[in-house]
């Protein structure tokens, strides 16, 4: 059942692990056609999922018979990383759903990252996703095997840490992660330190101060000192809530639900209407001049310089809302990290159309680019740092325009 839910979620561009999560995600969008392919799945479970999805009248459900290919019935050792990465992912999912053993951490990792693993991909790609999803207590031989198997993937896993991540940024002290309850942790901290925020939506670093935006759109400060600028921004957001947050140099940037971005400085405020609908993410750099990237519910990533009047074309666009952004200058040039609502994280080389992608499986809540060019990806239960391999080919991104109507 879980494998079918993941496959349907991938088909329709949402993130879901259970029928309830899938139904909730689909009901919030336009009417759709859902195709269920029952190969390797329990027929009774498929029929039940079809009934649940169809009874709301919002979805057209088609059950498509799929013939099993040759060799699919051969047993696979669920404790063998190489066999697991090469086998039919639907059957591996079914095996792990009913397994009593964790098989050195493979079962936990597979059930955590399954929506990514169920996709068609080479074994090296599956090994990379499994390696990133391994629990801390995974057996060493499993970790070594997955590291070896993932050598053909464009990323290597630098480190991972369990725990929920709501937002990421980079300060002078390194990577900063905020959890949903307002805990703030920099790389090297054993435990989060409490802030005044709760239900954190975004985090930004301004000199020695960490700024947090909560789900009500209010600004909170962690560490550092209260300045006239942060005081003015906080006062503004108390009556006009923000939806996204970033900071660079002497500027605090805030997005709003109408699609506008506001750049607050002590000299005044610049603003621009950049999106159709809510601004969902912001990122900014200040070298040599302030450059702002904004993401929206409209599925576009825009770039804006407050002093410039000319409107530039989108940096990238897809038919899914942008979830998070972060931009940094790296030894290879400026890089932009983008997270999308369908569970995709991307690292873009700005000034080119080159991009590397990674899907951890769960919904991506936050991304950040480290100063040395690594990509940090935060989910509801894991923070993972990935490094592009030196010999990795960076594909050229082809922008995909959002659909104009239901499919």
- Strand share of the residues? 25-35%
CATH fourth-tier homologous superfamily of the largest domain: YVTN repeat-like/Quinoprotein amine dehydrogenase
Kindly, what is the distance between the CA atoms of the first and last residues, rounded to a whole number of angstroms? 24 Å
- What is Rg? 22 Å
Number of E-type strands: 25
The DSSP helix count reads 9
Low-confidence stretches: 402-407
Categorize the overall geometry. Answer: globular
Helix content: 10-25%
CATH class of the largest domain: Mainly Beta
CATH architecture of the largest domain: 7 Propeller
Q: In short, what is this structure?
A:
The protein has helices at residues 2-12, 19-27, 43-54, 81-86, 89-98, 106-117, 123-133, 140-149, 228-239, and strands at residues 32-36, 59-63, 155-162, 167-171, 174-178, 183-186, 193-194, 200-206, 209-214, 219-222, 244-248, 251-255, 260-265, 268-273, 279-285, 291-296, 300-304, 316-317, 322-330, 333-340, 345-349, 355-358, 366-369, 375-378, 382-388.
């Amino acid at each position: 059942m879980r494998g079918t839910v993941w496959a349907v979620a991938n088909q329709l561009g949402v993130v879901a692990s259970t029928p309830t999560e899938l139904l909730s995600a689909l009901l919030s969008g336009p009417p759709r056609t859902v195709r269920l392919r029952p190969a390797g799945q329990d027929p009774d479970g498929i029929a039940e999922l079809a009934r649940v999805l169809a009874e709301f009248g919002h979805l057209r459900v088609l059950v498509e018979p799929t013939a099993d290919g040759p060799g699919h019935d051969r047993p696979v050792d669920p404790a063998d990383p190489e066999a697991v990465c090469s086998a039919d992912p639907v059957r591996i999912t079914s095996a792990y759903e009913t397994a009593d053993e964790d098989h050195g951490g493979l079962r936990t990792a597979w059930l955590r990252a399954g929506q990514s693993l169920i996709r068609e991909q080479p074994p090296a790609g599956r090994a990379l996703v499994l390696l990133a999803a391994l629990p801390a207590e995974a057996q060493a031989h499993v970790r070594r095997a997955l590291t070896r198997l993932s050598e053909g993937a464009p990323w290597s896993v630098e480190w991972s840490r369990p725990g929920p991540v709501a937002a990421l940024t980079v300060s002078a002290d390194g990577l900063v992660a905020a959890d949903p309850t307002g805990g703030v942790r920099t790389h090297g901290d054993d435990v989060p330190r409490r802030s005044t925020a709760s239900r954190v939506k975004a985090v930004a670093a301004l000199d020695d101060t960490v700024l947090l935006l909560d789900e009500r759109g209010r600004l909170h400060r962690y560490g550092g000192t209260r300045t006239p600028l942060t005081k003015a921004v906080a006062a503004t957001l108390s009556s006009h809530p923000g939806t996204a947050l970033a900071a660079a140099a002497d500027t605090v940037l805030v997005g709003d639900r109408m699609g506008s971005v506001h750049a607050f400085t002590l000299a005044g405020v610049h603003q621009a209407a950049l999106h159709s609908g809510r601004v969902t993410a912001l990122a900014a750099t200040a070298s040599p001049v302030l450059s702002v990237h904004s993401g929206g519910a409209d599925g576009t990533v825009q770039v804006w310089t407050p002093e410039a009047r000319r409107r530039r074309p989108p940096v990238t666009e897809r038919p899914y809302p942008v979830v998070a952004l972060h931009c940094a200058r790296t030894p290879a040039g400026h890089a932009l990290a983008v997270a999308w609502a369908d569970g995709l994280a991307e690292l873009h080389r700005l000034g080119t159309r080159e991009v590397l992608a990674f899907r951890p499986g769960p919904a991506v809540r936050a991304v950040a680019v480290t100063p040395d060019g690594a990509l940090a990806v935060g989910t509801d239960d894991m923070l993972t740092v990935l490094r592009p391999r030196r010999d990795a080919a960076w594909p050229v991104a082809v922008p995909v325009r959002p659909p104009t109507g239901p499919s």
